[in-house]
Amino acid sequence: MTRSLLALVLFLLVSYGFMEAWPLLRGPSLHVVSPRDGAPFPSGIVSVRGTATRIAMLSLNGAPILHGEDGAFETTLTFPRGGSILTFIATDRFGRRITTTRTIFVP
Predict the structure, then answer these.
(1) What is the pTM of this model?
(2) Of 1, 96, 84, residue with least CA distance to 52
(3) Which residue from 6, 21, 96, 107 puts its CA 20 to 30 A from 85's CA?
(4) CA dihedral in degrees (80, 49, 99, 85; nearest 10)?
């Protein structure tokens, strides 16, 4: 009886530890809402919005982007005529990275 109870308690502790550690094991997450890939922007003004979770740093084309505690970020940028590639890089505190790119066009 004691051995079974001890095994059950140990199993519950390991399960709880795994559930708490799961977000750290998954790594960073990045979801860019705007701009859509290949979208035209006649004015050249682009609103960049999205969400990044479990991150320590977020950058757009090498420049850091400020994000809230909930991971939401938003900024407005101006681009010259022609095509531009936006490269988002989210890095967690363990150095794991996730990259997303968007291509925009200013006629």
Answers:
(1) 0.77
(2) 96
(3) 96
(4) -10
Residue 71 carries which DSSP code? S
CA 53, 57, 59, 63 dihedral sign is positive
For the chain, how many structural domains are there in total? Answer: 1
pLDDT above 70: residue 54: yes
SS3 per-residue string spanning 31-52: EEEECCCCEECCCCEEEEEEEE
Which CATH number belongs to the domain containing residue 62 in this structure? 2.60.40.10
* Three-class secondary structure assignment of 4-22: HHHHHHHHHHHHHHHHHHH
Which residues make beta-bridge pairs with 24? Answer: none
Q: Which domain holds residue 74?
A: 27-106
